[in-house]
Request: fold
Amino acid sequence: MRFDGMVEARFIRRINRFAATVDLAGGETLVHVANSGRMRELLVTGRRVLLRPVAGDHRKTAFDLAMVDLGHALASAAASLPNRHVPEALRDGRLPQFAEFDRVRPEVRYGESRLDLALCGPTGACYVETKSVTLVEGGAGLFPDAPTVRGRKHMVSLTRAVADGHRAAVVFVVQRDDADTFSPNDAADPAFGRTLRESLDRGVEAYAYRCRVTEAEVVLTDPLAMRLDGGALMETYRRLYRRYGPQHWWPAETPLEMVLGAILTQAVAWRGVERALANLRDAGLLSPRGLRACPEERLAELLRPSGYFNAKTRKLKAFIDHLWDRYDGDLASLLSGDTGALREELLSIHGIGDETADDILLYAAGRPSFVIDSYTRRILGRMGLAPDGDRYGDYQRLFHDALPPDAALFNEYHALLDRHAKEACKKTPLCDGCCLRGLCATGRASVDTPPARNL
Reply:
């Protein structure tokens, strides 16, 4: 939206939700504040503000307080602007998630609320509520800045629309350009945060954008990453856990079986590993001593169900030889070492790479070392959460930096990612109904199957 004839003033004080006084040309002037939010962090005495002249006999004031100069950025103070931003961006093709809709109806009632927009098209309707965000802390746009019963009612109405078979979305518009992420402001209104998350779990979509704000215009520009409770990775875990429940990994019975399974599962499904372990169990070889004494030809035959059995025989023998040479066959002694040193030691053994070493650390030794596999890379890539680098350690650091160092959490999370990749985030993703859709860049951008949102 463009502005002409803006007038500069200095903020004095806020009188009530919709009125404030400013110093205009040396005199105290009453102005209209078109935003019922608290905006305490913006409306500071002495701060430069920009006023928009508004004519009308019915008005008590001649100006709207339009923008606040923060020094490093301008912030738009008009709460109604997001209602215009979304239709404008839709017409310009900047909202691909809503590309199927060609008509916009403003101010529509649904349930107990009046929602901002109804997007209409040949496939049906999408009900949209926009939220003006003016508070930014540490690069994160936060909403609300004060408790909002009305905001919670809007989320309930959007949830009802989804239950009735429609699409529904909330769009958070950060009316300044110094935000990199968006989060619900749980410190200001934990009830809204809970209601928002519950709505997302039930299929409401959520999006966040920032604006370019100049003295001449306010324009919706870049999408923002959404962070819900501890960041996107923690929110991803919560959603996966709610969808699938505990996975009871790893499916092996003893630390030795877990180590063997970590080696044998390379490039093969677990079913083949189970058959190979069963062969070893039936042959009485599930011990370091038995494996050391078993001839390679015999061992290879027993490992045949795991695939690449000759190579895996050599890898398994290399591990057992190391165990005997360094620890006299005592696996507990090996696994009791310092986590960092143990990982380096495992990596020095033939046939053990990063993923296998972390499988052993996490599942056999109970250490908080997150396992990165192809499923994890696929899901993070589609969600838009992949690191700048493509190395194993780049991905692992994402989890280690974002999550508490909890082996049980890492265990369950890795298992849930694998489950999700097999059931929903397949080579060809099944975005429709995906519990991560609102969080996922691929899911949000999909047009053929409308997003049943997630952040």
About this structure: Residues 97 and 445 are 5 Å apart (CA to CA). Confidence is low (pLDDT under 50) at residues 447-455.
